């Protein structure tokens, strides 16, 4: 088997092994990162809840909210928390198209990667079959061809293609 084919197969095996290790490490890091971020979000949520309760206890006076012909009375804290909730809902609705676009794009890329990996596996199988066929058809290595011509110096010195010793 030619040396370049052997090197290619060894390099390919090493690359596949490195890729498997990298994918495993990424999954491990993703799982750790999700756990840490979930804990941080939980702590942040508890802190916001405590701040909201303290805010509601300190701002318990009644206010009247009028919007056109519609008006209602409620505590100041409730009105401000309701305004924050409406703002969060609007922010979510505004950011939704971008999130959907990113999800669609990532699914398209994931499909392309899967197709390319399948093509790569198919080509690797084809290379293996061709190597086996080459080994079966030509079991012994081909002899090296002699140099096509001798230079003038070799003809005069009679070295038959060898370099003169200095």
Please name the defining characteristics of this protein.
mainly alpha; disordered N terminus; two-stranded antiparallel ribbon
Describe the structure in your own words:
This protein starts with a helix and ends in a 9-residue tail after the last helix. It has 2 domains: 1-58; 62-140. α1 packs antiparallel against α2. The longest helix has 62 residues, at 76-137. It is rod-shaped, with a radius of gyration of 37 Å. The relative contact order is 0.04. Residues 1-8 have low confidence and may be disordered. A hairpin with a 2-residue loop joins β1 (62-67) and β2. With 166 residues, the chain is mainly alpha-helical. 75% of the residues lie in helices and 7% in strands.
SSE layout:
Blueprint: H1 3-58, E1 62-67, E2 70-75, H2 76-137, H3 152-157
Antiparallel strand pairs: 1-2
Helix pairs in contact: 1-2
- What is the topology, as strand order, of the major beta sheet? 1-2
What is the succession of H and E elements? HEEHH
Helical region count? 3
Helix content: over 70%
| Rounded radius of gyration (Å) | 37 Å
Strand content: 5-15%
In the predicted model, the low-confidence regions spanning at least 5 consecutive residues are 1-8
Give a nutshell description of this structure:
The chain contains three helices and two strands; from the N terminus they run αββαα.
């Amino acid at each position: 088997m030619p040396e370049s084919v052997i090197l290619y197969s060894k390099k390919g095996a090493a690359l596949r092994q490195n890729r498997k290790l990298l994918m495993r490490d990424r999954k491990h890091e993703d799982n750790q990162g999700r756990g840490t971020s979930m804990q941080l979000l939980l702590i942040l949520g508890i802190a916001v809840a405590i701040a909201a309760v303290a805010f509601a206890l300190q701002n318990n006076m009644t206010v009247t909210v009028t919007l056109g012909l519609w008006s209602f009375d409620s505590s100041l804290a409730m009105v401000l928390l309701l305004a924050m909730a409406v703002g969060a809902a609007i922010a979510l609705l505004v950011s939704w198209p971008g999130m959907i676009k990113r999800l669609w794009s990532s699914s398209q890329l994931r499909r392309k990667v899967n197709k390319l990996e399948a093509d790569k596996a198919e080509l690797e199988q084809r290379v293996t079959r061709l190597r086996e066929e080459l080994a079966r058809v030509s079991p012994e290595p081909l002899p090296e061809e002699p140099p096509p011509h001798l230079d003038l110096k070799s003809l005069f010195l009679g070295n038959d293609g060898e370099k003169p010793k200095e």
